[in-house]
Design brief:
Elements: E1 4-10, H1 15-23, E2 30-37, H2 43-50, E3 55-57, H3 67-80, E4 85-88, H4 97-102, E5 107-111, H5 123-130, E6 134-141, E7 151-158, H6 165-188, E8 195-198
Parallel strand pairs: 1-2, 1-4, 2-3, 4-5, 7-8
Antiparallel strand pairs: 5-6, 6-7
The structure holds 5-O-phosphono-beta-D-ribofuranosylamine.
C-alpha cells in the first residue's frame, strides 16, 4: 500500500476513526494502516473491520498500573503495522511523556473544545456552566502536557439557548468529523498553518 501509514487509536464508538479512514482514499497521501483499541469489544473495532482496516486490541487492564508495559505493547503494534503517523480519536488513556516524545511531531489528537479552553473531560457541561456563547473542537499535535500541543485546526459553533451537554456533544461531533480529516490531509501534505471552520 502506498502513502503515509496512519494508525488510529480508539476507545469507543470510533465515529472519528471512521471519518478519518473513509477520507484516506483516491489521491489522499495517506492510508489507514491499523485501528487499535485499548478496550476489547467496542463498536469502533467492528466499524474498522467493516471498512477493511486491520484491527488490534491492547487491553490496558492486562497491565494494571504498569503503564510502561501497556505502552510497550501498544508500540509493538504500531511498529508491526509500520505506522508513521498516529491519530488519537477518542482514545481515553493518558500517554506517558516517554511514549509521546518517541513520536513527537507525528501524533495528532481531536479534543472537544476550543483549545486552550477546557482541556480534559466534560467539556460540553463546562461550556454550558460557564455560559459561553461559542464552543467547538480542536485538532492538535500531541505533546507531553494533556491537550496542550500546537493547534492545527479548529471548528466552532454558537451555543444555543436550549443546548444541553448531549445536544452540544452531537453538534460538536458533526464538526469533528469534518475537521479531523481536513487537518489530517493538510498535515500529511506538510501544511501546518491552522485551519478554521464554522458550523453552517
Ligand atoms: C469525540 O467526541 C472526541 O472529541 C472525544 O471522544 C469522542 C470520541 O468519539 N475525545 P468517537 O469514538 O470518535 O465516536
Amino acid at each position: 500500500m502506498s502513502g503515509c501509514r496512519v494508525a488510529i487509536l480508539i476507545s469507543g464508538s470510533g465515529s472519528n476513526m471512521e471519518a478519518l479512514a473513509q477520507s484516506m482514499t483516491g489521491d489522499h497521501p495517506a492510508r489507514p494502516a491499523i485501528v487499535i483499541s485499548n478496550r476489547p469489544g467496542v463498536a469502533g473495532l467492528a466499524r474498522a473491520a467493516r471498512l477493511g482496516v486491520p484491527t488490534a486490541v491492547v487491553d490496558h487492564t492486562r497491565w494494571g498500573r504498569d503503564r510502561a508495559g501497556f505502552e510497550a505493547a501498544l508500540d509493538a503494534e504500531l511498529v508491526r503495522a509500520g505506522a508513521e503517523l498516529v491519530c488519537l480519536a477518542g482514545f481515553m488513556r493518558i500517554l506517558t511523556a516517554d511514549f509521546v516524545a518517541a513520536r513527537a511531531g507525528s501524533m495528532l489528537n481531536i479534543h472537544p473544545s476550543l483549545l486552550p479552553f477546557y482541556r480534559g473531560l466534560s467539556t460540553h457541561a463546562r461550556v454550558l456552566a460557564a455560559g459561553d456563547i461559542e464552543h467547538g473542537c480542536s485538532v492538535h499535535l500531541v505533546t507531553p502536557d494533556l491537550d496542550a500541543g500546537p493547534v492545527l485546526g479548529q471548528a466552532r459553533l454558537r451555543v444555543r439557548e436550549d443546548d444541553t451537554a448531549e445536544t452540544l456533544a452531537a453538534r460538536v461531533q458533526a464538526l469533528e468529523h469534518r475537521l479531523y480529516p481536513l487537518v489530517l490531509r493538510r498535515f500529511v501534505e506538510g501544511v501546518l498553518d491552522p485551519v478554521m471552520l464554522e458550523a453552517a
